[in-house]
Amino acid sequence: MSTEVVTRFAPSPTGFLHIGGARTALFNWLYARGRGGKFLLRIEDTDRDRSTPEATAAILAGMAWLGLDHDGEAVSQYERADRHRAVAHELLEAGKAYKCFSTQEEIQAYREAARADGRSTLFRSPWRDADPATHPDAPYVVRLRVPHEGTTVIRDEVQGDVTIRNDQLDDLVLLRSDGSPVYMLAVVVDDHDMGVTHVIRGDDHLNNAARQMTIIQAMGWPVPVYAHIPLIHGPDGKKLSKRHGALGVEEYQRMGYPAAGMRNYLARLGWSHGDDEFFTDAQALEWFDITGIGKSPARLDFKKLENICGQHIAAADDAALLHELQDFLASTGQEPLSGAKVDMVNKAMPVLKERAKTFPELLEKAHFCLTERPLVIEEKAAKNLTEDSRAMLSDLTPQLQTATWVRQDLEALLNSFAEDRGVKFGQLAGPLRAALAGRAATPSVFDMMLVLGPEETRLRLMDAAAPVRA
């Protein structure tokens, strides 16, 4: 009988949800959800000086925006310190750990002497095999008795087998002199107690795996499946940093990228399924596997991100898109749409979502149905409202009074009107854009007319056709 897949995401609440962390969470979510397993969340808040409730809230908000739901309550690592201590004492009692009374000064002196002699500076405690009867009444740390012979092999699903010589591993500290457990111990105990079967995390943790395995083996626990994924680099191939742009997930939300597009792009960042670039959540859940993750760092590419997001906006359900648009407005401190504006945007959505890559672009296209009379006409558009063009709009308005308000008939009417006036349609379209939207760049004039309706269209044309007052 196969074991249920259990993955986890374990961020430290010392800041925002980093884009790299978001991808790690996504990979864990996809792997578990695609196999009917569990995806767990653990907040690694043992660094009390840097961990904040605000950072925890930011992580949860980022995951909620990305739609990465987790099973059960989020686990606080700090609150499990007693359990971590209990495991350390269990190892101590079994003789698999020992009390080390070496001071920081003694450890430093040992390393300096080793450096001078050209030896390894890896600290070897003189207390490892000391008789307990010789133990002083002094502060001590608890160290794991790590085997110094042989090798530790990390069987990694992404990196392949990674072999570490045990003589390169130190007797790692499990409990500090104040009795507080170290991160390495806490991670191992929590993963075991939470039933984690697959540890999918950044390859900056690869060296930690060998040290954590020594604890796992000392406890006689099963070793999880490891998959250490390459980090994300900037477009220049260097480690992602502030100079490359947005680092936190909430920044991407505020820039107006749709969550589905972000999920698609992040999934594709370092993982591939043939040549597929655009895919749905259902396809990602069906296709995602660790074997598709590459060994090389992925590069963040904003053009690809925008392209993918544009495709997701175009393919999205109109009602769902409107809901996410409202969330975007809230995330940027803008007033949500209400009343008639909601109706207008909903009506215009099929037009707006074509070729819009972000929500700001979609809102820019929606300007014509969000603005109200009298329109403020931008300078570039105003140049199209000459005396002749205003006269054209004045003559056109009564003809629209009896028009059938369907696209085919409107196209026929406007093209016939332009022909009768001896102008190309483009010479009529410019003044119409200015009249209907107050902008030079707009959706199709026919699309705008259909969304605005007969009465609003005629009123806007009459406003624009009115003589300019000195």
CATH superfamily of the largest domain: HUPs
Describe the biggest sheet? 3 strands, parallel
What is the CATH level 1 assignment of the largest domain? Alpha Beta
Average pLDDT, rounded to a whole number, is 95
- Ranges where pLDDT stays below 50 over 5 or more residues in a row are none
Q: How many whole angstroms does the radius of gyration measure? A: 32 Å
Roughly what percent helix? 40-55%
Q: Label the structural class.
A: mainly alpha
Distance between the termini: 86 Å
Percentage beta strand: 5-15%
Number of helices: 19
Could you tell me the CATH topology label of the largest domain.
Rossmann fold
Number of domains: 4
What do these coordinates show?
The protein has 19 helices and twelve strands. The radius of gyration is 32 Å and the shape is elongated. The chain has four domains: 6-76 and 232-302, HUPs (Rossmann fold), CATH 3.40.50; 79-229, Rossmann fold (3-Layer(aba) Sandwich); 316-370; 379-465, Arc Repressor Mutant, subunit A (Orthogonal Bundle), CATH 1.10.10. Helix 12 (340-352) packs across helix 19, helix 16 packs across helix 18 (425-437) and helix 18 (425-437) crosses helix 19. Strand 6 and strand 7 (160-165) form a beta hairpin. It is mainly α and 470 residues long. It has a three-stranded parallel sheet, with helices on one face. A three-stranded antiparallel sheet has the order 4-5-8. It has a two-stranded antiparallel ribbon with strand order 6-7.
